[in-house]
Design goal:
heterodimer; A: 304 residues; alpha/beta; Glutaconate Coenzyme A-transferase; 9-stranded mixed sheet; 3-stranded antiparallel sheet; 12 strands; 32% helix; 19% strand; globular; B: 246 residues; 8-stranded mixed sheet; two-stranded antiparallel sheet; 21% helix
Chain lengths: 304, 246
Amino acid sequence: MADNPSKVLSMHDAIARHVHDGDTVVIEGFTHLICFAAGHEIIRQGRKSLTLARLTPDLIYDQMIAAGCATKLVFSWAGNPGVGSLHAFRRATEGPSPSLALEEYSHFGMVARFSAGAARLPFWTMRDYAGTDLPRANPQIQAVTCPYTGERLATVPALNPDVTIVHAQRADAAGNTQIWGLVGVQKEAAFASQRVIVVVEELVDTAVIRADPNRTLIPGVIVSAVVVEPWGAHPSYAQGFYDRDNDFYVAWERISRDPARLAAYLDEFVLGVPDRRAYLARHSGLVERLQASRQVCAGVNYGF
Amino acid sequence: MASVAARELADGEVVFVGIGLPNLACNLARATHAPNLVLIYESGAVGATPARLPVSIGDPALVTGSLMVCGMADVFQCFLQNGRIEVGFLGGAQVDRWGNINTTVIGEYAHPKVRLPGSGGATEIAAHARRTLIVAKLDPRTFPEHVDFVTSPGHRYRGTPRSEFAMPGAGPVKVITDKGVLECDGRTGELVLAALYPGVSAATVRGGVGWPLAARTTLREIAPPTERELTLLRAVLDPNRLYLKG
């Protein structure tokens, strides 16, 4: 008695079908639920000329930049959170001849771009950017005069990605997706996108979704594919499943600083494995080190 | 620096918290004089009570036991742009005479010598928080007369005073350094020396700043951290010395 036909695909097939050379690709997640498994599969399938967009490029985009997948980055904060730099990103953007094109906003600007995209409006207004150099660096940041108050408001254009990939704790086979913990801009990014891939820790029966509909962030009606990939966000984290692998974030400083070491990392853990299962097999002790403690909340009464 | 920053926060205020030292300062304030401080992180955690020192502003410990978790559109629109944030903490690679902050590039934007992470939420925090506090170590490279790139607005931009940009917030009111505290002069918008740590001379602070630093007529002496503050910082809040050095 499935509510809808299944959209479940393997990661390989989801990426092969929905991510194409030249696409604008968003893998969202603010520190939480960053889908490294999807980024690695995009690298393995050798996608080229991608425009990568997200607020915080994080280690996964650093790896995709190093692997040659991207020609452009749209972002608002490009660092290794809590640690330091993204060195592949820096090598591609510093010096006399940068190889990666940048389109740079602030977090609010990126949030506003996704909000406009999700609402299918051409732009979004905000009080921002006055007295800063950001509009000089990025001519996409403009201003309008409010027809009601006469106030000058900053504007940013809608961002409508070709494909958005969201990692989540659970979904049903139709893609009704529930997320708890930090939710970032995943909802806006998904609604703004032409295609949506959700990658989940757990595939659940639709009854589980229906029992707690307020927790559904992304409805199945906008989802193109569902991939079941436990630990698919590692070394990022999934609230209630596993903690961030901070040791790896710290290690990335050393790995990414040296192009040869970075290439060796990709060879061993991305290109050298066929899928996520094989990646996890090369990381022993993850469960012992990172599995989340239990802090379960009581449910609510949905009765009427 | 953490204890000086903590003392700037009044009980019950709503604070937009950055990672690192500001996070320590906010949690120190909460453990001492400001138990009702409301900590908001740009990741969406509101009223966070982190049980461990967060390693990033997206740490899962910010969610567990918080008052609310919201999306980032709500953080920037319903909290920040709505005017609900009283204090914002900012840091930066460069801070200039007018409190402008650069976290974008060292050198030319198109061909930078060093590519820094960029704004994050700092641009809008500097515009909207009712007041902002800057935390940075004193060094002439960190405090040039003009920043290479204005990421977050201070009190004067290319000769135009902040008042003409109609920004809702007051901007950076204080810069807390490791040698003294600079304050924004209400008339000119320029950062001036206002307070010194015990045993530090005004000349030492001037040596760490890339412009002729003016000073208040009377300089305050900053009280050193109390035993209780030190114990809390070293034994409870940052036992592994993630942010505390020395």
